[in-house]
Specification:
Layout (H helix, E strand, L loop, with lengths): L7 H25 L1
Length: 33
């Protein structure tokens, strides 16, 4: 992965796309727990 070539904006967007499902899963786990 050549992350250095990707602009900061796209990198932030990619991180958001990756993190959002993880956060949603954590929130669901807390609700069920």
């Amino acid at each position: 992965m050549n992350t250095t070539v990707v602009p900061g904006g796209k990198m932030g967007l990619a991180m958001e796309l990756i993190m959002t499902p993880l956060v949603e899963r954590l929130m669901e786990g807390r609700k069920i727990g």
